[in-house]
Amino acid sequence: MRLALALTASLSILASAAHAQSAYDAVDPFIGTGGEGHTFPGAVVPFGMVQLSPDTDILPFKQSYARAAGYRFGDPTILGFSHTHFSGAGHSDLGDILLTPVSGEAKLEPGEADKPGSGYRSRYSHDTEVAQPGYYAVTLSDSRVHAELTAGLRTGLHRYTFQKGDRAQVLIDLRSSIYNYPGKVLWSRLRVAPDGTVTGYRETRGWAPGRKLYFAIRFDKPLVGQAFHNREADVPYKGFAQPGRTPEDRAQIQGRALVGVFDFGQLDGPLTVKVALSSVSEDGAIANLASDEPGFDFDAQRGRAKAAWETALSAIDIEAPAPMKKTLYTALYHTLLAPSVFADADGRYRGPDDQVHAGQLDGRPFTFHSTFSLWDTFRAEHPLLTLVQPADYTNDVVNSLIASQRQSPYGILPVWQFHGQETWTMIGYHAVPVIADAWMKGIRGYDGKAALDAMVKSATYAPYGGLGDYMKLGYVPIDKEPEAASKTVEYAYDDWTIAKVAADLGQGEIAKTFERRASYWRNSFDLKTGFLRARKSDGAYREPFDPTAINYGSDYTEGNAWQYSWFAPQDLGGVVKALGGDAATVRKLDAMFDFDNSKIDYSHAEDIAGLIGQYIHGNEPSHHVAYLYDYAGAPWRTQARLTQIVNSQYKPTPDGLSGNDDLGQMSAWLMFTALGFYPVTPASNEYAIGRPFVERAALNLPNGKRFTVRAAGLSEAAPYVGKVTLNGKPLTRAYLRHDEIVAGGELVFTMSATPNKTWATKPADRPASMTPYR
After folding, report:
1. Where is the Glycosyl hydrolase family domain (predicted)?
2. CB 291, CB 49: distance < 8 Å
3. CA–CA distance, 332 with 369 (Å, rounded to integer)
4. Which pTM value belongs to this model?
5. What is the set of domains in the chain, with CATH numbers?
């Protein structure tokens, strides 16, 4: 009996400690660095321009998909520390300005991971790694250096502690990049000023063409020597390990394969290195050096980074068991990395036209942001940011999108943009719903007419993605444009959001035009098979048809008919009717989740991860699907599916994400879902209700109000919603309105072991749809 009481007391203490753990301490930046998460563990502040992190391996001549963030948890060596990274992208690039500390003689090539001492890379142990928001540390065992990193908005600080008696040197490799291939570095420069400031730039042709980035570096110890090397032979650059020319001892060098070595001799204490970036110029980078930490106080900057994260993470107070709390706060952390700042401290930035612009739009100052993974992030990432970030942030994002449209050579909004440059990756014009969602929520620190003009121009640019045929035929024809079925329905949703904004602005004719286009999803929906299908110019559906087939460039984008047949978020009542009503829709949803994949091989498709039948949680087209039972009068089935997804797709480990985090979208899905609701249709100002996964969570809203979610009786044995109250009154509908959240209040779920099959089942209780449910 005493043992049982002692054990109960110990468990109670542990539970109390878990609840008392701060949001900052709950974050684990290693989550997602293994498996297919593609996150990085390094130092960054919220939306920082500098995202300073270790690079473990870069494979020359390959698009290093598995190392799209530069770091992979299972790799045995670290090359060094570069200053730009994507968090969770499905494509690799960046890894700019690689620095690495070396002791003794500096080898100029990275060497091979399985041959210690063959290059400047070093082995390390996870036991020596520390990763916290705004801070990273590791001991490089071959280099005999303890490296620490922290960051500000536009600067990164390195602190290197060398072994006593070792010769301290720092190597910079301007060849090194994530997604490395022959000729990626078009040109670069490296020079040292008389005061010891190192500056330079490089222009790269990678995922984005002709990307320019400038940098400035200062050390807190005097240089005793430096050597510049051009590792390019007298033939076109073909990557690492080319015959080298003799080292240059002058103060400047230019070329396509530059390596610099900075010598500090033997040091009595740590060496601190400060690096600033600029998209504008080397002078801009020099000015940015003083924009965060004016000197070299590493600990002070680490403290400021921690404070910035404590403020950002305090947007949500979470009470949950320790594993869920860690998973959720890390998810929130990952949602606060992009879109990131890409403007100098004076507001200037380099835009899509490769010109330098002031941070002004229509007389309004703004901070230019980039890294827009819009096909992913319009769904939940951007809607979440409207709740957890001040309105000024979303206004900066919208102004950045509008400015990019004006500066684009094509006159359209970004598709997948980073560092101001367009990649043309993925489909749709999904900057449109990001702007529309902000506008409909009353976040309006930009010109509404200019926003609508940018949206309409993007939606009527005929050369883009089959839009000309879409406007003529009412669908994108597959014999003229690949992935036509997906493009048709994604355009139709985007058009619906344009109609919403146009109507709000009193632009009736524009609203009428785009509301008509919003119904075009029907033109590719085959009532006979119950699937979305690609059609040819003559109107016939393409044959043969296999709803499970996934091939790049086929009828669908990173998915198949099972996922895309549900993509009409603006008209899910219409989808229910097209499928034959509530019961038929529920059967179709169940068939999707319960599908037997045992005889299907999807190994050729990198982004197809996290399969539950034909539901693919590791990629975005499926993200709203579990909530669609709400639209067919069976919300208890949504609750069951969400339990299945959360339990199988997320965990607090390096391989804890089932697919690419995609600049925060996977994490934003979890954050909303854990709170008990999800934005199935951004710009509708409604959230479909699911079930909560936290005992209690409070949104500390930007307007100063507080919206609390409580789950009474939450346990693994009680995964269903018995009843719901909002501010003490019964809530009998399956959706929550945005104005109800921002007004503050309390949403209480009473959990149950058995499903309540009468709650929120009536057509009047379902989220809004273009087509009535009856």
Report:
1. 285-752
2. no
3. 19
4. 0.95
5. 32-297 (2.70.98.10), 339-428 (1.20.1050), 629-774 (3.30.2080.10)
